[in-house]
Amino acid sequence: MDGIRSDLREFWRRLRAPPDALMLEVGAGGELLVAKLRAVLAFVLLLLPLASIAADEYTPTEGLAGIIGVILTVLAAQLILMLARQKRRFRWLPWLSTSYDITLTSLVLGMLAFGSFAGALNSMVVWAFYLIAIGMTALRNDGRLTLYAGALAMFQYGALAVLLFSLATTPDQLASADYGTAHVSNVLQRLLLIAVTTVMMAAVVYRMQRLVELSGTDGLTGLPNRTLLTYRFPALADAAGEAGMSLSVALIDLDYFRRINDELGHTAGDSALRHVVDVLRSGLEEKDWLVRLGGEEFALVLRQPVGRAWERLETLRRSVAASPFVHEPGEAPIRMTFSGGISSWPQDGTELAQLLRRADLRLRQAKMTGRNRVVARES
Questions:
Q1: Are 180 and 122 a contacting pair, CB within 8 Å?
Q2: How many angstroms separate the CA atoms of 65 and 22, rounded?
Q3: Which residues are catalytic?
Q4: Structural domain boundaries enclosing 321
Q5: Same domain, 72 and 187
C-alpha cells in the first residue's frame, strides 16, 4: 500500500508540474497536430448537419444549431492552426484552444436546448466531443492541461444540466421522442465518464512524459543527452536569431579521465563524473544548456558571442581545477581538469553538426597544446 500511495503522489506531482523544455517542445508539435486534426475534422463535420437536414432528420432548430456550431468550428480551427504553426510563440494557445473545444461543445448543447431540453442533455453525438477534446490534450504533453480540460467539461456540462432541470416546469420538457427522457442519473453517469476519461488521459500524459524523459536524459548525471540536444538546437538557434543574439557551442572533454576508471574502477569514475557535473552546474546561468554527449565528453550551449563564451568556459575550467575529487574519506584528492573547444553560431555554421565539428577541431588543438585549456580560435 505504501508503494501505491507513493506512486500516486508522484503521478499527481508530475501532472501538476510545469513541463520542462523538452516537454514544451514536444507539446508544441502536439498542439500543431491537434490544430491540423481540428481543421480537417471541422470540414468533415460541416457535411453532417447538411446531410441530416437534406434527409429531414433534424428539426429546423437542431439543423440551425448544427450548422452554426460547425461554421464556428471551421473558422476558429483555421485561426488556431495559423497560430499553432508558430511553434511555442504563444504559450497560452493550448489553454485557449482547449477552452474553445470544450466551450463550443457546451454552446452547441445549449443551442439544442432551445428545441429540446432532452436533446441538450442526451445528445451523445455532441456530448462525445467533450471526450474528444480531453483526449486531444494528451498530445500536448502537459498534465495540467488535461486536468483543466476535464474539470472545465464537468463544470460546463454540470452547470447546463442544473440550469435545464431548474427551468423544466413539467416532466414533458425533459422528454423527447428522439432523445428519450433526461434523468439526473444519466447526467451523473456522463459526468463520471468525463472524470474517468480525464484520469485515463492524464495517465497517458504521465507515461509519455516518463518515456520522453528517459529518451532525452542521461541516466548517470541527469543532464540532457545528445538526442535532446539534436532535437532542441534548431529551436535554440531560432530564438537566438529572433533576439538578434549569438550562440556558442563548447565541447568539454575531461583530461586523463580513463586513469580514474583504470585505477579506481568504474564506480569511482561515475562518481567523478557526477562531481564534475555538480561543479559545472554551479557556474551555469539560467539559459545555459549543459549536455552529456557520452563518456567524459560534454557540450555547453551559451547564448553569448564566442568571446564572452570563452571567458565563461575559462571560469568553469578554473572552478573544476580548483575542486578536486575525493572518492572516499581519507583518500588523496584527485585533481580534475578539462580541455575545451568553442564554435560560434552562425559564424562557424548554422547546423549543429557543423558547430560540433568545428568545436571538436579546437578541442583537439587544446589537447595537443597541453590540455587544461580552452581554444576558441584555430592558431
A1: yes
A2: 41
A3: 296
A4: 226-375
A5: yes
